[in-house]
Structures
1.
Amino acid sequence: MPHTHYARLEIDSLTKQFGQTVALKDMSFSVDPGELFGFVGSNGAGKTTTMRIALGVLAADAGTVSFAGRPVTRDMRRRIGYMPEERGLYPKMKVGKQLAYLAQLHGLSAPEADRAVMRWTTRLGIDEHLRKNVSALSLGNQQRVQLAAALVHDPDVLILDEPFSGLDPVAVDVMSGVLREKCLEGVPVIFSSHQLELVDALCDRVGIVAHGTMRALDSVDNLRSRGPARLEVHAPNAPPGWADAIPGVTVLDADNGRSILQLSPAADDQTVLAAALRTGPVHEFALHRPSLTQLFREVVSA
């Protein structure tokens, strides 16, 4: 049953130092109900530290975490589903027992916990492993158990640290489907990942983090439209230098009537097309926006 109290998760001006190392500096963003938020950055950028502060595992030196406009309390944290990057399951405990135990820790009664365990292990394709120790499972199935542990108490917020690492393509599809389902119910979902093509495909918005600060924050489409666009033009009769004088256009490569042009944000692709058509027929005219991977490299190295 969808909850009626899904709300926004807000991370406001978090700062955290470990000795002389600044792990977070003024980290701020929010995740709306039903939003899938991708949190990306290199190792050591501050993603895991931010997530641990949101969960209350770490204390911030400054800044606040709030849900539904109120500071996150211990009771409220029981309503968060968390999947840590270092998987936190008991290796010598049976899958079913472990999940039921974790569900009860989050406030479910024993019968509710048993029903939730059956529901999620079936949904994630691991119900045949209920009586096995976690350590006896493949890495991919251990991942699925870890996701079940994050979902079994029907959380109001999902925080997942590298949930896709080590998963086979089928498990990636299952995981992606579950995250989309939770969003449709109204749960705010935040996950970190190094697999940027997945972030690109799944997320409503993305935050790119470097050295403990938020460097870029927007929808994937908006972020990509900010980057330099490239045009591939095939105009077989075009003379050398045909595009040199067009405002905002840099010729990256030109050979045998094929040109690769970089457009500044102010450049107009229709002006380029008109110039190409003046030289004769145009067989190809394709605009390419930078991928999230290219953007990430630019933002992180800036």
2.
Amino acid sequence: MPPRPRLRADAQRNYDRLLAAAESALDERGASASLDDIAKAAGVGNATLYRHFPTREKLIEAVYDQRIQALCDAAADLAAAHPPDEALAAWLHAVATHVNASRTLADAFDAAYQGPEGTEPPQVTAWHRAVRRAADPLVLAARTAGRVRTDLDSTELLALTAAVARAGDPQQAHRFLDVLMDGITPRPEPAS
């Protein structure tokens, strides 16, 4: 997620309003939400929308970028405020919520990708990398505290979390994740 160039204060306000309106519209109506309605909800003209986001895909990418950044920021905040196992569990619940809440956006972004078939869009690769970097310290801290199996790394745990989040009904995801967390907790060796 490369840093965006600095904008004038009024341009930044318009950008922020457009992102908020887009996120709301995309969540309510999916990736086919009207760009005209998004501009109107943000209180700006279509030209302002297209100046910031020349294509629907760029708008979806910006909304998703914002969500990934918030998810990564949450990892550090939770690590600073909670014991390692609680921080990891809370963050993985946030990941599961993100997976379910962003499913339509992710599918739309993938569908719009014009690259070679069977390859992941570069921005998706960057998002996955950012999430793994956010997960690494949480997993390491929980592992060091003896609260996560030592043979499990961040990539595997994120894959399991994503699978659990997509399994069954989205309301079940958090129950499934609690079961997963119990399964990755080391157990004492039985006395012989």
3.
Amino acid sequence: MEVKIGVQFAPRELVVESAQSPAEVEKAVIEALNSESKILSLEDEKGRRVIVPVDKLAYVEIAELVTRTVGFTAG
């Protein structure tokens, strides 16, 4: 699954490919917003961790990873 994180004052969004379900990512975001630490921490498919201060979040987009076909198809 693909998670896009918009960070204030950053020219590009962060893109994380996560093995977590959309519900798990949504729960992590909500918990980070309500926690005292105010830190969002997500882990990608390779075990790398992305940590973002909640007060710098602009948006979090959660989407299923789309596989793209290459070449021509006969219709």
4.
Amino acid sequence: MSKKILTMKLLSEKYGVCRLDKKDLIPAWAQKGEFFSITRTLDELSIVCVENNIPSDIKCEKDWRVLKIEGPLDFALIGILASISTILAQKGISIFAISTYDTDYILVKESEIDNATEALVNENYEII
């Protein structure tokens, strides 16, 4: 039996990736749930959050699932995202990646999550 490369946790809820105006305040609805990510750039305010929290008038892409790489990961580790994205790209699965200080999160569309987890398990990743 092969040794597992990394363990990934599939979060239970569905998420949306939202685009707000660069000048908008960070809304309270975005900050609820097990996981959310907020990024402000010169061009936009981008929010990833539980899709059930997103108001209907917000521009967003819904139906994302989140795979969390169980960490913390050392900054010296090389190629983690490259390895995962290559495995999924070879299966024609698009991702949206978010990195934090401790770990990485891979977002995959709900329609592809079973294919994605199967592909990763076949490459010795553990999905919990």
